[in-house]
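#struct-help
A.M.: can someone run this one for me? Single chain, 151 residues.
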Amino acid sequence: MAFGTTTYSGMGVTGAINSPYAGPFILAGAFLGRGKITVTMEHEWSEDDIAVDGAVMRSASVGLQGMIEIECQQTSSLNKYLKAAQNSHQTALVNMDPSQWASISLELQNLTTNDMNVCTGVSFTKKPPLPYGPKGEYIRWTLRAANITNL
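D.P.: on it. Structure tokens below:
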């Protein structure tokens, strides 16, 4: 039996978000506090259809779309950036200019696990709930990505 330890550190999470309206935001080290970023692939690459006789027909299709959830402190510079980016993109859309709606890009890397995602065609889903209370809380932003590459 092998014994050992491994160490995970959120300080090893780095990356960047880029919006044509809000510009770039560099993600480095402890920018999340206790928050997190979760990248979820949404497409099912295999689907089965089962006939009356029990025969299985498998269909395979390619899809790289997914969701990105960013959870951050409501007073953080990341939350301020996301609010500015969302407001800019929403204002353009309301003013009949959808040309940049899904033009955000996001790159994430975990230096501890060597995981990396590059997300393009990214857009906001909606403004997150805004808590008003006796202490600061975490805000959860949800974005959709047309293409997520796992490197």
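A.M.: thanks! The chain has one domain: 12-150.
D.P.: also worth noting: Residues 77-94 form the longest helix (18 residues).
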